[in-house]
Every structure is written in C-alpha cells, then in structure tokens.
Amino acid sequence: MSALLAEDDAALRAAIRDRVIAAGSSFYWAMRLLPPARRDAMFAVYAFCRVIDDIADSDDPSAAKLAALAEWRDEVATIFAFRPTRPLARVLAPVVAEYRLRQEDFLALIDGMEMDAREPIQAPSLATLDLYCDRVASAVGRLSVRIFGDASPAADRVAHSLGRALQLTNILRDLSEDAARGRLYLPREPLEQHGIADFAPERALAHPRVERVCAAVAAMAERHFADAEAAMAQCSRRAMRPAAVMAAVYRAALDRLRRRGWLRLDQPAAVPRPVKIWLALRHGLL
Q1: What pLDDT is attached to residue 140?
Q2: Does the pLDDT of residue 270 top 90, yes or no?
Q3: 201 pLDDT exceeds 90?
C-alpha cells in the first residue's frame, strides 16, 4: 500500500471514530472499554453496519437499494480475497485478517438489510422475525465477540441471544419511527392472538390491545437477556465486558419502556447519558 493510501486510511479511521463519538450511543460507551486497536476494529465494523443500514433506510426505490446492497456484497468478497477497493473496505480488510472474522456474518448483515429494502416489513411471523434479528443483530454480535477476544462456542451463544435481545428492545423503542416508514416488526402470531387483524402500522399501534403484544415481545427480549447472561458466565470475563455493558444499558432501556407503557409512544423513554456512564463503569470495571 502506498504512503498516500495509508494516510487516507488513517484519516478514514479518524473520521469513523469521530462519527461514533458524535452519535453518543450506548455502543460508544461499551467500546471505550477495549484497547485502542480492538476499539478501532469495532468502529470499522460499526461503520460498515451504518453504511448498509443507511442504504436500507433511504428513500430510494427498492431496486436501487437492492443494487447498492449487491455492490457491498461484491465488496465483501474483495475484502476476503485481499483485494479491497472502497476506502471502508480497505480499513476493514486488516480487521478481518487480524480477528479472523467470517465472511458469512458480513453477508448475513446484508441479507438482513435486503429484507428491509425489498418492501416494508409488516407483522412478520415469529420465525421470520427471529431470522431478521439473527441477520441484523446477532451477526454483528458474532463479529464483535471475536474482536473482543473470545471466539469460543459460548461467545457465539452470547452473540445469538444478546443480539436478539438488543434488536427486540430496539423494535419496541422505535415503534413510531418504524411505523412512519411503513414498518411493523411486532410478530403476527401475538397480534392475531390479541385480536389485531389490521397490520397497517399506525392502526395496529392504535389498537388498545397492542400493549399485550408489546409485553409479549418484551418478555421475549428478557429471556434472551437471561440466556446471554448465562452464556457470558462461560466466557472470558475481560473479553465480555463490552457485551456486559451493552446488555446492562439495553436492559435498562427495556425497563424504562415497560414503565412508560405502549400507548404513549410519543413520550421518550431513553436511558439518560449519566446512567449509561454509570452502567459502563459498573459493568465494565467488575
């Protein structure tokens, strides 16, 4: 690699760090626990996730979104063939090599974004919802635990369960925002069980029994949090510190959502920044 390319890549890595910091997300506070090299590796994976997520969430026609995601599918192939072309791919290539990340996990992420890009998801079956959560969240977890420093089967179980717990919490947090995009991720079976047959997002969320559906999804998330905690106990404690912080922050978010309820979606239930910092210290330094 030429000196110019190396300088360009260093500038891109700095830009990625700045973007993560500016976002002020729970992710940032968890990743601060990592040594600088592992932290930058996680930031590069985060940037990849943001790029493909932005494609799926854009206002472009479905065909354009799918074409753009297909280009990234091809770019992932260049990373694993040691011939990256895009700047972000050049930053990701040494991360993939250093931490032995798996191509299938990057492709699963793209598969998940394609589910959103084809048409707005509305009331998926429980099986489809689980597949979606695996692709868009647990796949990120499988990449992450390797960068954290644990590639054991137990670490993959953490990724499996914690990814689902975080994504289900996100779904409950973002009900209104997703409805504005024509999306309703609440699963079909509990909707039908509670007499909600109209899956148009705004009308489904206005149904008085939607609270029961949301409570069922929250219970699903809680079970995944518990399974993730059990799997973490079999992993390297040091390696799992960022995962423990993410679990603590999102569990706090789920608790706040439960206390607020599901019929006042305009009322915020975000975890305040000081609480995130406290949870990062509590769970990151144990």
Answers
A1: 97
A2: no
A3: yes
CATH architecture designation of domain 1-102: Orthogonal Bundle (1.10)
CA-to-CA separations, 35 to 32, 39, 41, in angstroms, rounded: 8, 6, 10
**Which residues lie below 8 Å from residue 279, measured CB to CB, with a gap of 6+?**
29, 245, 248, 249, 252, 271
* Pair of tokens at residue 200: 């148009």
Residue-range domain boundaries for the chain: 1-102, 120-286
Measure Cα distances from 126 to 130, 131, 159, 216 in Å. 6, 9, 19, 12
What is the pTM (predicted TM-score) of this model?
0.92
CATH code that applies to domain 120-286: 1.10.600.10
CA distance 196 to 271: 30
pLDDT, averaged across the chain: 91
3-class DSSP assignment, residue 121: coil
SS3 content of the chain, % helix, strand, coil (to 5): 75, 0, 25
